[in-house]
Amino acid sequence: MLAAPAAAQSPREGLIVSTDWLAQHLADPDLVLLHMGAPAEYAKKHVAGARLVTRAAIAAPAAQGALTLELPSAADLEASLERLGVSDRSRLVV
Length: 94
Prior knowledge:
Layout: H1 19-25, E1 31-36, H2 39-44, E2 51-53, H3 55-58, H4 74-83, E3 91-93
Parallel strand pairs: 1-2, 1-3
């Protein structure tokens, strides 16, 4: 007989961090904070240490008939993320 889990956990629950968690982990060497948005928003206010990521930085170049936020090739996306300091060891907070 299999035991049922004590409480069902939403699949998203493990993906969201609290402000307390973030404050405790800001100095972690593998933590990479990504601020998604426009440069003007970033200039006004962002979490200390966050790196700005614009939609254009992670989208495929616009081509006729392409989706407005189509991802680039895996190699191009990997290169963009590496420029932001993301590695295989990174823990990302967006």
